[in-house]
Amino acid sequence: MDVLVIGAGVVGLAVARELALRGHGVIVAEATGGIGNGVSSRNSEVIHAGMYYPAGSLRARHCVQGRRMLYTFCGSHGVPHAKCGKLIVATNDLEQAKIEGIYEQGLMNGVEGLSFVTGDEARQLEPNLSCTGAVLSRETGIIDSHALMLALQGDLEAAGGAIAFHAPVQGITRNGTGWNVMVGGDDPTELTVDAVVNAAGLGAQALAGATEVYPAGRVPPLVLAKGNYFGCLGKPAFSRLIYPAPVDGGLGTHVTLDLAGRMRFGPDVEWVEQEEYAVDPHRAEGFYASIRRYWPGLPDGALVADYAGIRPKLTGPGEKAADFMIDGPTEHGLPGLVHLFGIESPGLTSCLSIAEDVAERLAAGT
After folding, report:
1. Residue 52: CA atoms inside 13 Å, Cβ hemisphere, count?
2. Which parts of the sequence belong to the FAD dependent oxidoreductase domain (predicted)?
């Protein structure tokens, strides 16, 4: 097949690579001038183990399988990463019940390396921590996400694929046996391909709406959940990632580390109506309160506004978190078309597994 993949984020690149390795002709259409300039450049760079997601869900399946694939890929391609582990901590009885549920869910999802530790045992691992108990996840890690995307791009191009930058997609129409795609800005070009994969992240719903014959009722809502991050001045207090019990819309204001050992906190959850990435320094007040529940020693004035990202959610505040939505030919009946909606966390961890899934759906439905 000749396939057009829309979006050069981590999922789009992984999908394009997988299709090229299977012998298909692949072009990636990217609206900006580089790879990973959207959701993929504004996350925690965490390799998730897979214990948060409902058993049997796409998120559970692809996170667990994708994490295993990702560690193997990093090892074979020299992508910087570290399996540093993390603690999911409780500071009261209610939170203790929550993390016990996460532990049980992880076992159901087939997550390796999970164990309960008491508050004293957690403090032996991380002396600055304050908690009543914790779940230790040994398989959680961190990754250089840009290096990952460069490695995916390298494999794609070595297999004969290519990326077209500054190539926004304006519309997709059915031509009988394939698809005509209008690509470009002021002077667009029409490409004729056998298959189209929409991996446009925050732009996925708009592109689905611009796809002729794709039922409008299948396009899910796009709900924007902004996540703000704050850096932390001073020497790192932890050697592992520290996560509190989850909150509505996210996993709580947690401690992440980069590969140099620097700490940052976030993301929080700020429901917004439009894309904007400025971090309000005044949100630090809420961060201090959340963080001091498990790190009472956080000094005043240590937090500095860093960056923000937008989660492309399918559900809003107070609603049950939606699963990934991978809408392929078997679901909608149109050969050679896959739309990816709601690929938020753990999308980075899941990218290689999602790529296999998309390739199989295209093969089954063309």
Report:
1. 21
2. 2-361
